[in-house]
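Record filed below.
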Amino acid sequence: MYNKDDIVYILENDQVVRKAKVAGRQDDLYIVQLIGSCGAIHLPESRLFESAEAAEENRQKTKLNSANVRNDFISNRPDPFDRWINSQKF
């Protein structure tokens, strides 16, 4: 649980660790202001970290998990863009 004016760290776009300040809480979401930026965003507690190192560890876990995903999607339906591509004269 974080209180107003606590310094936290977040992962921006699940890539960059950013320092932020808790501006308040609304239901299950925290209102967080990024330090050095204008405005505020609402985030759940699971997206807030006490240190930059903790946020970095979470980023590495996310990166490892997403690297192991394979796309095995095979469709029996024709691609709707095939007809358009074949009609183009290059």
Observations:
- The chain has two helices and five strands.
